Amino acid sequence: AADGSLAKPPQFDNIRKGDSFWKAANAQGSKVKILTVPFAYPAEDLEESCMLCGLGVPDIRGTNSTFFLMSDAISAREALSGGVALPLMFKDGAATVAIEGLRDPKDRKKFISVPITVSADRGARRVTVKHGEQEIALNEGEWSPWLEWTFSVSAKYDVKSISRIHVLEAGDQVRLYMTCLQFHPVDQYIRFTTPESYGAELKDRYGFFKTIGWEFDTHALRQDALTNEVFLQDVRDTMAWTERLALNEMDRGQFDLLVAASTGPDRVSHMFWAYRDSKHPLYTPELAAKYGRVVEDSYTIMDGIVGNVMAKLAPNDLLMIMSDHGFHSFRRGFNVNTWLIREGYLSVEGQTDVATATNPKSFLDGYDWPTSKAYNLGLGSIFLNLRGREGKGIVDPKAADAVIAEIREKLLAVTDPKTGEKVFSQIYTRADYKGIASADAPDIQLGYAEGYQSTKDAVKGTAPSELFEDNDDKWSGEHAASDVATT
User: pTM for the whole thing?
Assistant: First the structure.
């Protein structure tokens, strides 16, 4: 509002259709406890029940998770994939840096910031972080306690948040990692618990806890803003907290249905698969000796959690254990739009040579739609430029099946010139799946063979010059576009 008060609370719109099965059960009189279930956000209204949202809860910036890397080796602010690098300009042993919180609603190009001051004792390999009235001394390799933040949007509206800092280095170079700015469990930016007081209840029980849906900072690990050891210890600690919560809620009773989820094994598989695959570009015997079993270790932890749950079951209780997918190695990336250009199905504005045309623009900008029959956006999805569906569609709906069959046949024949292997084990078409959303589904869904996936460029809809590229990213395990028959 004009006086700085909150005219309308921030909200998150979930485009999921239909009601969750726990909401349906609750409407029929069942008491439910829903704990960190992915994509069950925002929190639903439930009677005599509780809910803690999981994957899908953003940070206060509205992103999946944006970490902060602060260092005196950084000369200027830099945007990283999944994070922000901020320079520490030391003068007389101290540096002040502005931590960027949420975007300013009056100017979306700016962030509302709060300063912290970092002092370094390089000889002792220790830093002191001053945040408001709080001073915290941290040794190299140590985590801070949870910090509470207040970002003043106006004189009448503040946004609360929490985060933690880890000291990566505190010697010749100072490097600090800070988690994303997460929702405060007591003063929630957007409600992520049911009832809202459940957040304060959990804080009273356990102290502050992670509230970000993307619990494990894969972005920071990929950017070397976290070490493998710190990441894996965080996985173990977080899985232990999730287990404690689930077991405590079982002990407290008063429920007919309890659902608890853990994403730990998934994130470890994404980030450490290379070290269990001797064909992966990042594999070395030394790394395999250190990390070649960490995926299995995460499943061993999960197995122990299941055992502890089983020990608490009553005679008539029903226990269901579910996993949403398996994993494959991601050794080589395939640029789908580049292939579509080379085969004459996709055109780039101002470029007529299909053998050399490229498009660096993201999210389908830069293509010549009046001469394009098909395009890729997302993981393994190919859509026809269909007349009547796409804004500039040219493919006659009556000819769609023939175009789909033609593309499918050509894709199944694609081989990798480096290995001689087929890239796809199966190609699925819209005839293979049904449902109320099938009209919006891809016309073609790629079923990659072991070792292959769409590149990050392909996901964004761009078209680099090369069809194939080695995956030298720590994100080395994948499932999103693997052949469903083998995943």
Answer: 0.94
